[in-house]
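Batch manifest, entry 17 of 40.
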Amino acid sequence: MARASFHVILCLLAFMLVLNSCTKETPSKSKNHSFFVAGHTYGKPGSIEKGFHPPFKDDFNFIQTYPGITFGIFTGDLVQHSSTESWDIIDNELEELGLPVYFTPGNHDVSDYDLYRQRYGDPANNNRTYGFFEYEDNLYIMLDANLDNWNISGDQLIFLNKLLEDKTQSVNHAFIFIHQLVWWDEHTIFKNIVLNWPPYTPDTTNFWCTIEPILQNYPQPVYLFAGDLGANTVAEPYLYYEDKNITYIAGGMGGGIDDNYLFVEIDNFGAVTFKIIALQGERDRFGRIEDYTLP
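Output type: structure tokens
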């Protein structure tokens, strides 16, 4: 590491895959709470800017004052180029945000895997780049699809299986976060979704043969979030689709027209609702994300 940061010390103490860049060290306890989900937050590909996408950073005050806001989860590509300088800037800007935040790595974030592991890996588990936490009877899982070309395999698959088995009865919902849309496939209902960079998409993954059955058979509702959309004007800006036990959600920013992020709200009865936020124009101009129709 280039420097011993406050954030890394918190990561070492927390023993989880987490950058706790905040003025309060743990989320405040409240049954009625919300969190944000934001993907591709470095913004426009090819930009010379470092740090967060400026329109997203301009929303920090709105995020800080959002009702019940407790923490945030970044679904990958926080930096365009993984370097000590880029990550130092991210760390400093997260201090301004002042909330606990959790990372799931994007392909840009792990272009220097060693650096990412050193700074944000789980020190209790050989600096692995996937992990979980529990909050208010809900399970939050961060996965790394970069380890095996969009597949969840090997030790990570063992981790996921065991975690879900262990947490079958003790949680109300499972929220799973990953950067890539690992469920995309040209032979499924998602075939017309235009990804940020289609040539980067593998021909096949083990999602439909291995991961999807696991999630469908889980006794609690599963919400699967990805963050690799919206980086250009051709890519789909966001999506939402319910399929039995799994709700698929994705979004992102960088295109400069339909950039977005999401608030997830959980009420005192455990009901989950969503609020998609536009970064250009009126914040609520997309309407209800639940009304989204697959192209």
